[in-house]
Amino acid sequence: MYRKHCLTFEDGKYTAKLPWIESHSPLPTNYDITEKRTRAMIKRLSPELHKVYDDIIEEQIKRDFIESVPEDDYTTGHYLSHHPVRKDSPTTLIRVV
Question: Distances from the Cα of 31 to the Cαs of 26, 40, 51, 63, 95, in angstroms?
Fold first, then answer.
């Protein structure tokens, strides 16, 4: 059911809709706390991991996995914070979650 109604394949990419209850009231904005968490997380990164984290974000933008929202209305919407997770791998120090 979900696959039939919520997955689309366009321009060589899959797009999946979030499972959403139509009658659910809008979530309150959490922009302020998400911004504070992100800034605090960035401050804790070592210079090496900061560079790796930045490279991962830039690569995801380049590959259209994520996109910048330059003129967003911060009074509405619900934001998801992100953070690095260390990996025990010689080629990949962290991944963004």
Answer: 14, 14, 25, 25, 23
Bridge partners (DSSP) listed for residue 85: 95
Strand partners, 14: 9
Instruction: Give the torsion sign (CA, 82, 44, 57, 67).
Output: positive
Transcribe 14-41 into DSSP letters.
EEEPPP--TTSPPPPP-HHHHHHHHHHH
Given the structure tokens 């139509």, which residue do they identify? 22
65-80: buried (b, 16+ CB within 10 Å) or exposed (e) per residue?
A: eeeeeeeeeeeeeebe
pLDDT tens for each residue of 40-85:
999 999 999 999 999 999 999 999 888 888 887 888 888 888 999 9
User: Beta-carbon neighbour count of residue 84 at 10 Å?
Assistant: 19
